[in-house]
Amino acid sequence: MEPGTDADNLLKLIKRLLLEQAYDGIKMLFQSPNESEKNLRHLPAISMDLYCDVCAPSLTDDTNVENSELFDCVNELLKIVAEYAPLEQFMLEVMEKIEESTSIAIFSAYLRALQVVLLRQGDAKPQAVEWCLCSVVTRMRDLPLPDYLSEGYDQQQALLLEQEQQIEDLMAHYITIDLCYEPLLRNILEQEKPNVIFRDCSLNRRNVFTCSLVQLMDKPLALLELSNEMNPYLMPGQIHSCRPCPKRRRPEHTQSNYLLARANAGRAQTYVQQVVQSLTQHITRLIGDPYYLLGLVEQRTRWKRRLDASKGVYEMSSHNIFLIDEKLPLPALAMYYHALFVAQLLPTTAPKIYAPLFLFESSLYLVAVLLEQSEPPLQHCGLRLNDYMLSILNEPVPQSSLDLEVHKRYCEALCKITGYSPQEALRQKALQTLHHYIMAFDDDAKYFVLRNLLATLQHDGILGYLGGIYKDLVAGALQRQAPLHDVYSGVQFRSMLLQCVCVLPEDVKSDLLLHSTSLSNAINILRFFALGDMENRTGFWDVLPEIEERLLAPLGKALNFSLAHYRAYRERVTNGQSASDDELMQKQLNMLAVNISNSGMAGDGDADGQLPDIGREEKLEVLAGSITGLETLRNVYLRACEILEQNQSRRKQIQAKPVAMELELEHH
Question: Global pTM?
Answer without folding.
Answer: 0.85
